[in-house]
Amino acid sequence: MKHIDVCLTPDLLHLHDVDNTIVVVADVFRATSCMVTAFAYGVGSIIPVATVEECRNLQERGYLAAAERNARTVEGFDLDNSPFSYMDERLDGADIAMTTTNGTLAITKSRSAVKVLVGSFLNLDAIANYLRGQSYDVLVLCAGWKGRVNLEDTLFAGALADRLKDEYSMMEDSVLMAHRLYCDGKENLISYLAAASHIRRLQRLGIQKDIAYCLQHDLYDVVPVLRGNALVKMEL
Questions:
Q1: What digits encode the pLDDT tens for the residues 50-81?
Q2: Among the four residues 44, 102, 172, 212, which has the most C-beta atoms within 10 Å?
Q3: What integer pLDDT is reported at residue 205 of this predicted model?
Q4: Domain count, the chain
Q5: How many Cβ atoms sit within 10 Å of the Cβ of residue 49?
Q6: Distance (Å, rounded) from C-alpha 5 to C-alpha 222?
C-alpha cells in the first residue's frame, strides 16, 4: 500500500528520501493559498525563488514580482502575499516571480522529488483526487515559520491524510499527529487556530479576511505543479 508522511518543517526534509515521492508543499498563510488562487484566476506561471535578490533579478527581466518577508510586502515589488491581490483580470496569462519567507523556500528545497505540487485548503479535494491515481508515496512538506513547526500547515497535512486514508497508509508519528489534530479541529478551524502564532502575526497586520479565506475548503479544482523552475497549472 502507498504511504503518506508529513515533514513538519523544511529543516527536517533531509531526514526524508523524496527521490521516489510526490511532495505536496503547504504554506497555508499565505504563499500556497496565493498560488492556488492565482492559477484559478488565470495566471500563466509562477517562478518560486528562495531569495529577494533572485526575485528582483527576475523583475528586472520583465516578470511581475511578488516578495514577502515577515508577512509584509517587500518595498519595490509589484504584488504582495494576499490571495485577494491575485483576483485581478490583468494577471491573466502573466508570468510571476515570487519569494516568500517560508513557502517558496520549501518548494525550492523539494526539487529532487518525482513531482512537487502546491497544496492548500482551497484545492484540497483537487490534490487528493490527483494523488489517488498515482503510484508514488506522498510527503506533505509543511513550510512552517523560519524552520519552526506551525499549526496551520500541520492541519492541512492532516486534512490531506484524512482525504487519502483509504488509499494511503499512515505509518509515521508525524502524519498520525497531523491527522489527529485535523480531526479534532476540523469543525471550526478558525476557532481552533485562534492562538496560533502566525494568526497573531496576521491579525496585527489587520488582514483577518485573508485568514478566513485561506481556511476555506475545496474552492478550486486547481493543482499547481513544478515543471523545471516554474509552477504551472496541471491539466486535470
A1: 999 999 999 999 999 999 897 788 999 999 88
A2: 102
A3: 65
A4: 1
A5: 22
A6: 22
Write out pLDDT tens, residues 145-171.
999 999 999 999 999 999 999 999 999
- Domain enclosing residue 159, as ranges: 2-233
**Taking the C-alpha atoms of 123, 121, 9 and 189 in order, what is their torsion angle to the nearest 10 degrees?**
-170
Q: Identify the CA nearest to 29 among candidates 145, 179, 146.
A: 145
Mean pLDDT across 7-17:
97
At 7, which CATH number?
A: 3.90.1560.10
